[in-house]
Design brief:
With about 400 residues, the chain is of the alpha+beta class. The chain folds into four domains: about 1-115, DnaJ domain (Helix Hairpins); about 130-165 and about 220-270, Urease metallochaperone UreE, N-terminal domain (HSP40/DNAj peptide-binding domain); about 275-350, Urease metallochaperone UreE, N-terminal domain (HSP40/DNAj peptide-binding domain); about 360-390. The chain is about 30% helix and about 25% strand. The protein has helices at about 5-10, 20-35, 40-60, 60-75, 95-100, 105-115, 125-130, 145-150, 290-295, 355-365, 375-385; strands at about 135-140, 150-160, 180, 190-195, 195-200, 210, 225-235, 245, 265-270, 275-280, 280-290, 295-305, 305-310, 320-325, 340-345. Strands 10-11-15-14 form a four-stranded mixed beta sheet.
Length: about 400
Amino acid sequence: MATKRDYYEVLNVSRNASEEEIKKAYRKLALQHHPDRNSGNKAAEEKFKELSEAYEVLNDPQKRQIYDQYGHAGLKSSFGPGGFDFSRDFTHGADLHDIFGDLFGGAGGMFEEFFGRTGSRRGAADGSRAARGADLRFDLEIDFEAAVFGGEHEIILPVSETCPTCNGTGSEPGRHKETCRHCNGHGVVVTSSGFFHVQQDCPSCGGRGEIITHPCRACRGTGLVKNRRQLTLKIPPGVETGSRLRLAGRGEGGVRGGPAGDLYVMLHVRPHSLFQRQGNDLFCEVPVPLDVALLGGEIQVPTIEGWASLKLAPGTENGKLFRLHAKGAPGLGNEGPGDLHVRVAVEVPKHLSGAQKRGLKEFMDTCTADQYPERNQFKKHAEEFLEHRK
């Protein structure tokens, strides 16, 4: 699966956005990039598909919960035997009518979309209300063993936390903020020019509606202080590169008593010396002695559960692939484990002694052309090809 953008980033909403906020963001962006309004524009068409896919996930509580916890990899492994189909069409036109109303019907709707509806103005309380802390991302590289077996990992995270001195208010304890005189506590100022009215954040108070007259000395009025936080991260079995773990309330601290944001840990699995991974399937190349490949026998194969026996038939060819059912990596959630694919790598002995070379030559002298069917087939095809050159 190709690398995908974060769905919240696609819709330009925060991770704690409500269903209504998600729907509103999708409506705004989809109107802008809808194919009917961008005829022949492939970029707009792909953008519209990306928006619809993000809305498909974030508007569904179950899919959103899985995405928040494990990211795209979690969606891939949590919806039936085939996983979540990222390639299908997410536009579902029947739902679009409900979201957009009548997209091109009625002049009022289009004017409202472009010029906006008259909204309620923020009061003084809006600037002083609690604000949620920002979400954080932390990229973590882990060993293959931690990815398949799970475990714990200690991380140290530089983070801004709510100031304990002022409890995030930004003011010295016992001091109160003053109502901004420039905007009279509304947090916004409105300027008029003819028929147009422009509303913007108050430049004096930054939209808060209040002025901090005595900033907290510990945080210098920001409501936040820098800290180094040590966390124990629990890694579930079955994660892979691209998996995302969500730690609720472990992000940036809130201000004015607001809740902390979330921490999202992006996992990257280091390459392994024995196994390569594709989804939940594992691949392993096992060296096999020449005599075992010729005569057949039993070899020992490493799996994540321990050694397993594999019987080879006489004449096993180099590169032959065997599948050990359910011996691959564990799946996330309720998904079962993958398979282990074992590729035979016939090993030719090195540093032969004189006696061994003579014995091998005697053996080869007893072999006939009929015992090399693949070489005979190759020679036949080569001769047919060269015959066409004449």
